[in-house]
Amino acid sequence: MTSTVAAFHAGATWHAFWGSEVGHWLLSKGPRVAIVVVGALLATRAIRWAAGKLSARISAAGDDDSAVRSESVKHRQAVASVISSVLMGVLWFVVVIDVASALGFAVGSLVAPAAVLGAALGFGAQRLVQDLLSGFFIITERQYGFGDLVSLSVTGASGEARGTVEDVTLRVTKLRTSEGEMTTIPNGQIVKSQNLSKDWAQAVIDVPIPVSADINAVSDALHEVASSATDDQNLEHLLLDEPTLMGVESIEVDTMNVRMVARTLPGKQFEVSRRLRAMVVRTFRRAGIVTPSGTTPDVEVSGQDHPAEVPG
């Protein structure tokens, strides 16, 4: 008897709930809200999946018989990332408006308060707007893209950031340093960008020799290195042309520096400079040319001493 009475009360409560305003709303508008939210979640996953597939396809297309990715491939990858982010932002903005309308909020009446709130947030979110605008121009001007080796001058205590670009959005740029660390930089804080792997790069090799050395013998040895570099199996696919001997670059009290330069594929100047330096040392030893005591050939790469490289 007790269980029958309890079941009767439970049934009455259940019917009363669905007969109330809350129950009526759940029956009339609840399914729509649930469908919209679930649909937005599925659409978000679909956008991310499509962006990943597109990025992988662009990378695969740029890797065919190529040591480095072209500038157009890098730019298309950055644009694909930005488009996916913008699509998801617009999608969830529409979802929030639709759900707010279903919940009974008068969206039209919120225009005036939203304008005031937007003005207040505008003063507090100037940095965010600056980041978005800077990111827009970075991408449209093709300053750098995925896989580029860059040096960025940043406002604030950090001063400078260097590494390989792993992600570019409208708000931030993410760099992977040579130590494997991930650095995230707001685009609005970037005041100057140096792309060390755009179109082509230059390896600069400064070789110190004693002032008493035979400059003709040194020149002949370096010419031999330059001519044999294009035939080296480790360098022939990295060099754009034969290295050029520039001659004596500077003279000091006991030494003088002889410079040789080489144009390379983007981001490969560091690898080329190391291999050329090894070839110079071997050639000097065979020719009996000695370097100043305690000094080894120094390598300067396009004015930047940066050990990181773009993945091949």
Question: Which properties best describe this structure?
Answer:
312 residues, five-stranded antiparallel β-sheet, four-stranded antiparallel β-sheet, SH3 type barrels, Alpha-Beta Plaits, 9 strands, 8 helices, alpha+beta
- End-to-end CA span: 80 Å
Helix tally equals 8
Strand-residue proportion: 15-25%
Number of domains: 3
Largest sheet: 5 strands, antiparallel
Q: Which residue ranges are poorly predicted, with pLDDT under 50 across at least 5 consecutive positions?
A: 294-305, 307-312
Give helix and strand order, one letter per element, not per position. Answer: HHHHHHEEEEEEHEEHE
Structural class: alpha+beta
Shape: elongated
Percent of residues in helices: 40-55%
Rg (C-alpha, Å): 31 Å
Beta strand count: 9
The chain-level mean pLDDT equals 75
Give me the side-by-side strand order of the main sheet: 4-3-2-1-5
